[in-house]
Amino acid sequence: MHEALVTGGSGFLGSHLCDALLARGDSVLCVDNFFTSQRSNVKHLIGRTDFELLRHDVVFPLHVEVDRIFNLACPASPVHYQFDPVQTTKTSVIGAINMLGLAKRLGIRVLQASTSEVYGDPTIHPQDEGYWGRVNPIGPRSCYDEGKRCAETLFFDYHRQNNLEIKVMRIFNTYGPRMHPNDGRVVSNFIIQAMKNEPITIYGDGTQTRSFCYVDDLIGGMLAFMDSPPELTGPVNFGNPHECSMLELAERILQLVDSRSKLDFMPLPQDDPLQRCPDITIAKTKLGWEPRVNLEDGLKETVSWFRHVIDNPK
Ligand code: NAD
Ligand code: UDP
Known about the structure:
By secondary structure, this protein is an alpha/beta fold. The chain contains nine helices and 13 strands. A seven-stranded parallel sheet has the order 3-2-1-4-5-6-11, sandwiched between helices. α4 links the parallel β5 and β6. α7 packs across α9. The two termini are 36 Å apart. The model has no long low-confidence stretch (mean pLDDT 96). Nicotinamide-adenine-dinucleotide binds next to α1, α3 and β5.
């Protein structure tokens, strides 16, 4: 049994992680500044003796006693992370320094939720962990991409300099229940638009690809990685290698929702990666992890969750 600190714990991935940790008997200190989430994601946990919720911004130091840190605090949707780009970089970089400092003081293991964005708009396909990426350092996505890259640098420097046990997880696009309906990411946008029979906003010609992983698979991978031997520092890719274009995604969602929405083609945002697909050989061979939920089943779960949200407005 562990006492885990989960930063960004009331967010989409963080709240599922809190559930999974509690379900296996760990206790959780959930820290969040509620920038992109609401307490409602963890409302069902409030009042439990093994769960504590603390409003705190990871840009400021935190002094608590725990024995593991999962560092997830950071807006993940391009719309959200570009809203206040300076804060995004601060969250990634200063947040990482604060969590690494805490881990060093306590002598505990710390996991970083890094991202496929460290590969930028990649020239090799699928992306493996040896690829250094192609990232624009001065564009609108840079606050996130470079912030996460710098956080990885800090993790490895604390590991080398202080012998800290680190786990650097490169997460590819993940979706599922509890995504914020106004999050701006493609899966939530398309589902909400399809449900309301509003135009589906395809950016560019819709041939750009992503590989979508269902949240339960991702959280299973996160726990397995955190529990793995200290030598496995990462970075390790986690995602679903099934690649899909945005046009295909739109068509699947339209069918699932039985929607009358039309496609509305809009300009492709600057530096939007054209293709993205994880090579998950390391996760498979070192952890025996691979995703189990296919896109169809995962989208069904997600659609029924969004139906519930729309039918039960707060
Ligand atoms: P999310 O926006 O739902 O959750 C992020 C959480 O962090 C929110 O609850 C937000 O309020 C909190 N937060 C933001 N800044 C903070 C700060 N300064 N101090 C404290 N809390 C802060 O996003 P998510 O999809 O759950 O992503 C979680 C993590 O996983 C992020 O670090 C993200 O970069 C990473 N990630 C997610 C994906 C994905 O597809 N979901 C892909 C790659 C990486
Ligand atoms: N996208 C889209 N319509 C939308 C939202 C996103 O076509 O309403 C595209 C976006 O341009 C990108 C892909 O979907 O190519 C995934 O975008 P998202 O914001 O979900 O995440 P990203 O992988 O870009 O961080």
